[in-house]
Amino acid sequence: MLRSYLSLxxxxxxxxxxxxxxxxxxxxxxxxxxHIGGSGEFINxxxxxxxxRLIGLDTLxxxxxxxxxxxxxxxxxxxxxxxxxxxxxxxFMHHPPFMSGLPKMDKMRLEGSEKxxxxxQKHSQVEMILCGHLHRPVQTLWENIPTLVATSISKQFLLNxxxxxxxARIPEPTGLYLHLLTEEGLVTHTSLLPSIQ
Length: 197
Prior knowledge:
- There is one protein chain.
- The protein contains 5 helices and 12 strands.
- The strands form 4 sheets. It has a 6-stranded mixed sheet with strand order 1-2-4-6-8-7, with no helix packed on it. A two-stranded parallel sheet has the order 3-5. Strands 9-10 form a two-stranded antiparallel sheet.
- By secondary structure, it is an alpha/beta fold.
- The chain has one domain (2-192): Purple Acid Phosphatase, chain A, domain 2 (4-Layer Sandwich), CATH 3.60.21.10.
């Protein structure tokens, strides 16, 4: 299904593992993808081809639906950000670092997000953080950085703030965010997608 959606785009695409992924399977399925094959143990990488630098972070914790950024991944991020202090940067990862108000999903959020916050407090060039995982569109200002969670491309869950039930799927359309870099900064548009069978 992911390749079906990606085929709608007339632009390069970049991906990182989600909580249901296996790194080796992902690398095999996207062997033609230039950024994940040789990225070491984790699928962390940078894309330097645009006026804004893209950094993909691997938050996968095998055997768990929660995510984590271990010291090795955080050290990589700190070193990567330090190497280009003035380059405007967009960071993307699967697990949101903030509490969403969706109790079931908050139980499987990014573990140790305070360590990520400590790294980002040293680097003012990060202009936005993009996430997934929640199967709902959510936006917040986390650590003074606009942080967006995209809609799911597969299924949407019922908005049930304060409730434990998240498995109720609802017929909301899937979608994606389109990010436009203007002279004034990043502007994000929501694009709803047609259903692909």
